[in-house]
Design brief:
Four copies of one chain form a homotetramer. Chain A is mainly alpha-helical. Chain A folds into two domains: about 70 residues, Winged helix-like DNA-binding domain superfamily/Winged helix DNA-binding domain (Arc Repressor Mutant, subunit A, Orthogonal Bundle); about 160 residues, GntR ligand-binding domain-like (Four Helix Bundle (Hemerythrin (Met), subunit A)), CATH 1.20.120. Chain A contains ten helices and two strands. A two-stranded antiparallel ribbon of chain A has the order 1-2. The N and C termini of chain A lie far apart (about 50 Å). Chains in contact: A-B, C-D. Chains C and D meet through helix 1, helix 2, helix 5, helix 7 and helix 8 of C and helix 2, helix 3, helix 5, helix 7 and helix 8 of D. Chain C binds a DNA duplex through helix 3. Chains A, B, C, D: InterPro entries: GntR_C, TF_FadR/GntR_C, Tscrpt_reg_HTH_GntR, WH-like_DNA-bd_sf, WH_DNA-bd_sf. Chains A, B, C, D: This is GntR family transcriptional regulator. Chains A, B, C, D: Pfam families: FCD, GntR. Chains A, B, C, D: One of its GO terms (molecular function) is DNA-binding transcription factor activity.
Chain lengths: ~240, ~240, ~240, ~240
DNA sequence: GTGGTCTAGACCACA
DNA sequence: GTGGTCTAGACCACT
């Protein structure tokens, strides 16, 4: 029985603050949250946002500069500028493989917790939940049409925000705090970055949303859950298609 | 609304190694990987397993001792012993009745993440996973029979430890770290109180376990998930019946 | 009655190094050897002076910080700073009135041990003792005049520190360790509260000091002792007058 | 001014428990509290008395055995036996010099605190104090005469106990707790061992006691103090004479 | 150039 | 052979 315990405790590693900062910044850069040519926040701002000292920010910035991800200019008008990445085919493929697993896991997790939440929501939703969800749906409709018509980045943004709120609203209707947290976490870790990468819309997202809400309203748990799964899988396929390009 | 993306960079916190050690050890205790009365590895062993210095282990142990989770004895034959949590059955029942909602939520959450994990596991399990799960199953079988035959508290303990390991083993076979965390989290919250209250066995638990493992082995995701759901619901009913007494 | 001799062997207690360090530092603080606002030596310096490791110094510092005796600041220009004890003058006076007996006892004790020490010192002082005492006297003179002229809190501080050192210096010249301890103990108990309450000077203190030192230098034990007694009684009267206001 | 601080903190040394035990036992042996041929308490008893583990006692005993101060015999009827010391002239002289200073200091200290206490007692004694002291005086008288007449060790013991109580009673009459502690400490550290060395009486001790008590009763502080000083100096001379033999 | 934390290794007291 | 304490030295984050 002692080998049961063997897996109970695993080595611990304390990660230096500047590495954490490097990770965060690299992630933000790789996910396109800052685009080539953009200026990053100043050292002082970064220190404040990340809640570390400027020394630590500098250490992180030095690493990123060495990696060629950002350029540092000194003096007045200086600052950190995002560099256009220099592609290396082999490196890209490795990156892709690494991401492939992470994306698979993220989607698997999202499907599990979001369909679970949707199923419960269909059984427990109250009038107020429905009102809220309908309102969000209308908002998304408007944002989507405007965004497509005007190629408006602002409306794209709005759509994404409302989309997020809609999914969280469903989790809220499930009336289970832990589940709500799990859904929020799953989305926070994945959807925002992914949304940021593509910075574009899934035109038929609202059709799914409507169908899901209808099933929730009609108290059809399995149907609602199935539609949510389909919706998420659709997004997954969009992303995987992009990754295969 | 545009501040949705502001979360691109979030505050960084460097977690002291001894806190990480506390977290790991507390998790192991809460998951029943070490049971009341068990002796933990020695300071020196823990230091090696966790790959930290004895000093760091000691800092963590001091916290756990202050929390009453473990007892420390010196000298030859000394060491760290898992303490039985102190509770008063009547008080626990009152507490639980007050928290009926919390129990419902905990089970809902468990069902979602554990059935999800089981479904994935059925698709992904490897030979090594099956071996491990079979071994645990056999261990539980022995422990269960011995426990029933001899009214042995130690074998009851063993059974519960193995039970926990079995469920986590399935989550591990799903090969999704976040999901594994979620399952561990779901279980840890119920484990100590529930295991402690009952301190007794669900005699047919192993039938479920066997059926689940069979479905996983045969790569039947839906069947495995359905059986896992049934198993958890059975436990839920046992508990709810106890609360209604 | 025969158990009088039983005390031949008494329980032994090994005192952890960090407690010894706490004791030393607390004593130095209570004797005014470091004054509120002063910076203590750095961690590394303390470790060297006390001949212990930094770890041990830190353990002691943590205690003193928890007790509010010192403040800890990090970073360049950081370090340990002596905290001004917090007290409320009105409250102190009430406290003192209630403890009139304690003050009487403290002064009685101080007179006994300090005059005793002075008497011995007059017989045993060496050149080095005299040099040291003269130096302290000159320092007090400067501090006193500057403090009076400039109303300088820092020089008041200096004066008090030197005053304490002068009295202890006399005890040291008596060349009796137990007596030195007794004098230090007698002073430490009065020092912080009294020095803190008044935070002011006894302008003629230096006249006494000079007269005492002269008698010690001239090897006149009884004269030296008498002058010390007079000096302490003067302080006693100052305090009692304040308490009667 | 920084050289004032220089003396404030001195190196710290943590003394291993077994060294403390060695010191205590060696002191007891050197002071004759156990005499050659006597059997020491058993290991277990020593461990209990000294509040340390048997291991530690053994470590101490090993040192003392190596030094030839005690003999260790094993098995039934075994134990620790005090050895007759083998004198080494040079060593004795060093010892003597070491003690000379310690004895001088101890007497100086005793004189200071005991005469101080006596002076105060003469001013503050109450009827109850006098009663108690008279009673002790009468007891000493009896013990002294019996001891002298019968050469009774028991009555010598009794005398010493009462003597101690008498001196402490005076300190008590001074009504100053700190002073009482100081007197008790001075006596505990010196008088008992010294009494033990000589194991004999100062026949005229009671004359001093009577004279002191009379002065206290008559409220004559200076007279009382002077007589106490004379009394202690008499003892001092007796001891110094013995040391010079 | 300060305090904060950890490491590796030693010695000790304990049972 | 266990936990309890200390040391020496390193690296880190802060200011």
């Amino acid at each position: 029985m002692s080998d049961v315990h063997a897996s109970a405790l695993s080595p611990v590693r304390q990660i230096p603050a500047h590495e954490l900062v490097v990770d965060q910044m690299r992630l933000a850069l790789e996910l396109g949250q800052f685009r080539p040519g953009d200026r990053l926040p100043t050292e002082r701002e970064l220190a404040e946002i990340l809640d570390v000292s400027r020394t630590t920010v500098r250490a992180a910035v030095a690493v990123l500069e060495r990696e060629g991800l950002i350029a540092v200019r000194r003096g007045r008008g200086g600052g950190f500028t995002v560099q256009a990445p220099v592609y290396d085919a082999a490196e890209m493929r490795r990156e892709f493989r690494r991401n492939k697993r992470a994306i698979r896991d993220a989607f698997d997790y999202r499907i599990i917790v979001e369909t679970g939440a949707t199923r419960l929501a269909a059984g427990r939703r109250r009038a107020a939940d429905l009102n809220e969800l309908h309102k969000l749906l209308r908002g998304m409709d408007t944002a989507l049409h405007t965004a497509l018509a005007e190629q408006s980045a602002q409306h794209t943004n709005d759509f994404q925000t409302l989309d997020s709120a809609f999914h969280l609203g469903i989790a809220q209707a499930a009336q289970n705090d832990r589940l709500l947290d799990a859904v929020a976490d799953a989305r926070r870790r994945m959807w925002l970055p992914v949304g940021a990468i593509f910075g574009r819309l899934e035109p038929n997202a609202n059709d799914y949303h409507e169908a899901i809400l209808e099933a929730i309203e009609n108290r059809e748990p399995e149907l609602a859950a199935a539609r949510m799964e389909e919706h998420i899988n659709d997004t997954r396929q969009t992303i995987e298609a992009w990754l295969k390009r």
